[in-house]
Each structure stands twice: as structure tokens, then as C-alpha cells.
Amino acid sequence: MILRASLPTAILALLLHxxxxxxxxxxxxxxxxxxxxxxxxxxCVGCHGxxxxxxxxxxAMLITKPRDFTKGVFKFRTTPTxxxxxDDDLLRVLARGVYRTSMPEWSLLPDRQRxxxxxxxxxxxxxxxxxxxxxxxxxxxxxxxxxxAARVARGKELYAMLECSTCHGEGGHGxxxxxxxxxxxxxxxxxxxxxxxxxxxxSGAGVEDIYRxxxxxxxxxxxxxxxxxxxxxxxxxxxxxxxxxxxxxxxSLRTPAAPAGKAVP
Length: 265
Ligand code: HEC
Ligand code: HEC
Fold this sequence. Notes:
Layout: H1 2-43, H2 45-48, H3 87-96, H4 111-122, H5 128-131, H6 149-161, H7 165-168, H8 207-216, H9 227-231, H10 242-252
């Protein structure tokens, strides 16, 4: 009898809790966004604009244009091509900045403010809640023997076979035959294939960042995702471990750093 009476009571209690906590969550999000709006107004608005459309007063002077957040298209993600980034992806961009562009790193901002910024940035795109972030792809750790000559040689074959060279060029200088004919990106800005000899990517310094880039692609640009090709190695064209072999080759294209102390022109 006690059981019978208490079960519905328990369900009722759960239901009441859920009903009460939904508005509480909405309030918390509204408060977080309000905080984000304030921080955004202080640090981001000059480039990304009041409306989040990438048209802040500084934008006209910048070669690489600030992101327009209203389209829901993001380049630097761990999520599959065509999907929205996770909060962690946006937090990573804030922590690192975008190297080689004017996008600063914000690692000195308190974590709470960075999370509030993420909530606010997402609010510029109306369909965010409905679509939700993509599910991050698996990002395995790099093999210990990444730099071996065998891996680099195999990577070179893949680079040719997968036609990275059409955009990035045979020597990796970003000067492949397609580079000059690429249409503007989805935001209407000119796009330039990365020059691998320069080293560190825009989105990160690690070899994992190279792997992530060609597995997820850079949404909004001509840089495609090759996840499908590497997902099912057929043992012939694509073999087990080939994704890291390609990374090994790309790393090998880097121009050796100038010796310390010597001025770099
Ligand atoms: C001085 C100009 C400038 C300021 C200030 C600035 N940004 Fe950026 N931001 C950029 C540029 C330029 C890019 C685009 C880089 C690219 O497309 O490669 C960018 C890219 C981004 C991206 C990456 C989007 C993607 O596609 O993955 C995010 C997120 C972002 N900014 C958020 C912010 C936030 C939040 C602030 C304030 C704390 C901020 N930015 C301040 C210039 C700026
Ligand atoms: C159709 C042209 C095209 C092809 C083919 C292509 N890329 Fe790219 N790639 C680009 C463009 C354009 C960018 C720069 C986008 C930007 O910075 O907004 C880029 C950028 C990159 C970056 C740098 C990302 C960063 O954070 O700076 C890497 C790494 C990369 N590509 C790897 C590859 C590999 C590996 C292949 C072949 C498997 C390949 N790409 C094929 C056009 C291409």
C-alpha cells in the first residue's frame, strides 16, 4: 500500500521538479546571455559588429574578415562537415584566437565570461537551439613514430591521390592550379588555400589540428572534409593509419625554423 501510494507521488514530484526547473534553466540562460552581451560589447563588437554580422567598424580595415555569426557557419570545429560547433569548439577558438588573423586570443578572460560569450555568440543564429551542435568526430592521439620517412613518403602519395595539391599546390605553398579560381567563401570574402610551408595553422599549433581540419573540413570555404574517405580504408587506395601518414607529409612541408638568434627577414 505504501509502495502504491509513493510511486505516483514520486512521479508527481519529478514532474513538478521538471516543470519548475525548465523556467529556471531559461532564466539562467537569459542571465548568461545578458552577461555575454556586456562582455561582447566591450571586446568583440568592434570587429564582429553589434548585430554579430561581422561588420564592426574595424572590419573594413581587415584582410581576413571577422566571422558573421548570423549564418550559423563556423570553420573551426571538431564536428562533422555542415554541422554547428560545440561549446568546447567555440571556447577553444576563444582560448587560442585565430593565428595569422586579427582574431585575438582571450585566455586572460575568466572562464565564466568566456562561457557567457559563447552563449551570446550562439544567440545571433536563430536556429541554433533547434539544430544543436554536431557530434564530435573521434580524434585519436598521434602515433609516436609520426615523423618516420615511411609515413612521410606514404603521405606524399595520398596528398597527390586526394588532390590536395589542386588547391594547396604541389610544394604545399597554397598555389595549386585551383587556388586562383576559387569563388568567394559563403560570407563573400576571397579565400586562399593554406601555405603548409609556413607551419602553424590558423586553428592551432598541434599535429592534431591538421588531422581535425581535413577530417571535418572548414565550413563556408572550399576546404572539404575527407572523413568519409578515411572512415573505411579499403586496404588499397586508403589503408589503416593513412590519415596520420597524410599529417606526417604536411608537417614535412614546413620550412625549418630559422636558427635562434638569427634575424628572420
Ligand atoms: C580585431 C578583430 C577581432 C576581435 C576584437 C574579435 N574577433 Fe573574433 N574573429 C576575427 C576574425 C578576423 C575572425 C575570422 C578568422 C577566419 O575566418 O579565419 C574571427 C573569428 C572568430 C570566431 C571563429 C569562428 C569560426 O568560424 O570558427 C569566433 C567564435 C570569434 N571570432 C569570436 C570572437 C569573440 C567572442 C570576440 C570577443 C571576445 C572576438 N571574436 C573578438 C576578428 C576579431
Ligand atoms: C578545393 C580546394 C581545396 C582542397 C582540394 C583542399 N583544401 Fe585545404 N584548404 C583550402 C582553403 C581555401 C583553405 C583555407 C581556408 C581558410 O583559411 O579559411 C584550406 C586550409 C587547409 C588547412 C589549414 C587550416 C587552418 O586552420 O589554418 C589544412 C591543414 C588543409 N587545408 C589541409 C588540406 C588537405 C590535407 C587536403 C587534401 C586531403 C586539402 N586541404 C584539400 C582549400 C582546399
